[in-house]
Specification:
alpha/beta; binds zinc ion; 457 residues; TIM Barrel
Length: 457
Amino acid sequence: MVSAAEVRRADVVVVGDQIDSIGAGVGAPDDEVLDATGCLVIPGAVDVHTHMDMEVGAARSADDFLSGTLAAACGGTTTVIDFATAYRGEPAAQGLATWHAKARGRAVVDYGFHMTVTELTGDADDLVAEMAESGVSSFKLYMTYPDRLMVTDEVILEVMRAAGAHGAMVSLHCEDDSTVASRRSAALAAGRTEPRWHAWSRPPSAEADAVKRAIRMAEETGAPLYIVHLSSAEALQQVRLARERGLTVFAETCPQYLYLSAERYEDISERAARFVCAPPLRDPWHQEELWEGLRSGTLQVVATDHCPFTASDKRAGLTGEGWRDFTQIPGGLPGIETRLALVYQKVAEGMLSAPQWVDRCCTTPAKLFGLHPRKGVLEPGSDADVVVFDPRARRPLITESLHMKIDYSPYEDVVVDGWPRTVLSRGRPVASDGQSVAAPGWGEWLHRGPSGSVAGI
Ligand SMILES: [Zn+2]
């Protein structure tokens, strides 16, 4: 059994939907036994960054709450937090209701919501209090995408102040929009529209500048800050400096930034479009820095930013012949099913410890977003979300072996060592040997408690 603290030999007794007891020789003679000999028994993984069933222009992310959470279960993830979004002109409660309707009766594992705020029409305190009452204790704001999502620094400061006062967490998408906007216009004016110019238009310096600004705002308001999908060494350095100063700053990275690089954009075919995401993939040397950030704890979480678009959606873009113009390619990659095994590869190599793997993928995400101790740990009283992970299983990450509703795999050249053999969600099997045995609607919505006030992470 692997926790965020240790590896030990133990039996886990599940009664109903919860963990009852843990230890050597616990359990009764007539209990049903799931033999985990030779396997690692870990808490169900928690993915705090997904975009299911989300419209982006004419496209829509390919996984809805049924297919997306089914794929999550097959890969060992038993809790997801998706981004409910209140678009401009829409009250937060309405955005939240829309996302509840998307997920209800469909999700096969438990799920919660963050609230994405795209404008502030009333008082930030009222908004944060209303959402806290509705079980939503984290907010997402964007420092780019001026057309639909970006908010001003003034709005970020107001939401941070209110969130800090109510024990809520503020997540930020950090890319400096002035840099992005000016590079984008320059590229387009020069006729440089292929996917590789997407990466050029969003350089690591734009991310690092925004991270620095975000940290300054968090310091000014005293609010905890969570930086999503950190992709570059420069941005990582800003987080390291802030944490050394004792600021409550957290950051996640994603498997695409750990495994894939900007070389993918050099493909002259439409395949390059499949790798368009923001922040973009970076030069290969950043990967080593990010892994080291995870090892040292400068990065606390691996989440996925799961936002898949089919090959034809990527090709068509938002307007038709889209992929030749990087500004028209829907951004995002699939990843909800492959995260746990991809991060495990560094445990197999001896770079990360097994407890670090559990900590970054299961325990800390649950703690940061108000789900601990119900989720993210195997302890008496916790939900019986259990993964029996077989380190000897080998799996090629090709489309045919995965369940995400998408016709390509960004990791088709990767064969992983280790895959979940059995996955339980609240005591019930939802995946077995990488195949789904889940029931639509089994997943429950999670009313989350305060985030943010987390010591020692
Ligand atoms: Zn995202």
